[in-house]
Design goal:
This protein is of the alpha/beta class and 379 residues long. It has one domain: Alpha-Beta Barrel (TIM Barrel). Helix content is 28%, strand content 13%. The chain has twelve helices and ten strands. The strands form two sheets. An eight-stranded parallel barrel has the order 1-2-3-4-5-6-7-8, surrounded by four helices. Strands 9-10 form a two-stranded antiparallel sheet. The protein is globular, with a radius of gyration of 19 Å. The two termini are 28 Å apart. Belongs to the glycosyl hydrolase 26 family. Keywords: Glycosidase, Hydrolase.
Length: 379
């Protein structure tokens, strides 16, 4: 999503935690052909994610509910979603904690097996080694955790070159160790997500610095936590000319640094008034289907870490049909879909993507989308 500054003073007041500067979507810049930054291959355990014929794997009744790797390896049948083993969930709203996730999933009529959250971005320390609260807030969540993790703090654009030089490698090692300490080593990290979004401090203003920073962070994080699953995610639909050379995939850090390739996909800019519009947007460069094909060409599974309606965008209204088209797309691509998470947010006139919140005075009712979501995602 765009306009991080407008979303930066998060949900945490309701939780009694003084955590500020959390963004909804973050952006980073990566350069694939970067000879100045040596490539360090991940350990075998860090790169052993299933990447292709996941449906040939037998169902594992003993798969640990909190293990991203074991859950992603479960077979997902094309044509249904979530089905028996699809990873489907939401971010915590109004508080980034398990209670908010469970409330949403109770209302939809099906437990969530994935929860998406964010670290604080005040400075490098709060973003990495001092982010234990992220895991404490989900200590009782018996599912897979997805952490959206910036590459530099808010307003830290000038730090990208230093990150690419390895100056913050110890911070990344500390973050990896923290994940392990909290029993969440085998979780998904959306590292430097939405690097092609103008409001992100780690956006791809300098593609080489972005790629170098991502690679350094990924390598250091994996050295302390070989089980981490790294998800490289873009913002859907378009990349400004000054970011990643005008195309998000120019910032791809390389297959050995990425386990999952994903997209954040909202019904705005452009919105989809018809199924033909939805399909056309999905097939266009940096659209849902276009980027899925990019992921598959690299042998990676795909994720949709944020998605939702956007009635305050160019649509200007609730659009329950978008919920249906997204569900149909998930079902049609289930075999290679690692996970998806709806994005909840009520933020005045900017973001009103929330559903299933009929009694929240700050949220638009979005009744049609709420009904469509409940009908489809209980299956």
């Amino acid at each position: 999503m765009s306009d991080v500054s407008g979303r930066a003073r998060l949900w945490f007041a309701a939780g009694g935690v003084a955590v500020l500067a959390l963004g909804i979507a973050i952006a980073i810049t990566v350069n694939p052909a970067d000879d100045d930054h040596p490539v360090a291959k991940a350990s075998a355990s860090a790169s052993a994610l299933p990447s292709a014929n996941v449906t040939t794997n037998p169902a594992n009744p003993n798969a640990h509910a909190r293990s991203a790797r074991q859950q992603i390896a479960q077979p997902r049948e094309s044509g249904s979603w979530p089905g028996n083993y699809g990873l489907s969930g939401v971010n915590g709203f109004p508080v980034l904690n398990s209670a908010s996730v469970k409330e949403f999933c109770t209302l939809r009529g099906r437990a969530c097996n994935i929860a998406q959250t964010y670290t604080d971005r005040t400075d490098y320390d709060t973003m990495t080694r001092n982010s234990g609260w992220v895991f404490e807030y989900f200590a009782d969540f018996d599912g897979v955790l997805v952490i959206s993790q910036a590459l530099v703090p808010d307003k830290g654009e000038a730090l990208m070159a230093a990150c690419a030089n390895g100056d913050y490698d110890q911070n990344w090692r500390d973050f990896g160790a923290l994940m392990v300490t909290h029993g969440r080593g085998d979780s998904i990290v959306r590292l430097g997500w939405e690097m092609n979004e103008s409001s992100m401090a780690w956006r791809g203003l300098d593609t080489e610095d972005y790629i170098g920073c991502y690679r350094k962070a990924a390598t250091a994080l994996r050295s302390a936590n070989p089980q981490v699953v790294l998800d490289w995610t873009i913002n859907a639909h378009n990349t400004p000319k000054d970011l990643c050379g005008g195309l998000s995939t120019n910032c791809y850090p390389g297959d050995e640094y990425v386990d999952i390739i994903g997209i954040d996909n909202y019904d705005h800019h452009p919105w989809s008034p018809t199924k033909a519009d939805f399909d056309r947007t999905a097939a266009a460069p940096e659209g849902l289907t276009w980027f899925f094909d990019f992921a598959r060409s690299h042998g990676k599974l795909f994720s949709v870490g944020e998605w939702g309606i956007m009635p305050t965008g160019d649509a200007g209204r609730d659009n329950p049909a978008f919920i249906g088209w997204m569900h149909e797309w998930f079902a049609g691509h289930a075999e290679f879909l690692a996970y998806e998470a709806y994005f909840q947010r009520c933020d005045g006139t900017f973001s009103q993507s929330s559903i299933l919140r009929p009694n929240d005075p700050d949220c638009l009712p979005n009744t049609g989308s709420s009904d469509a979501y409940k009908n489809l995602f209980t299956r």
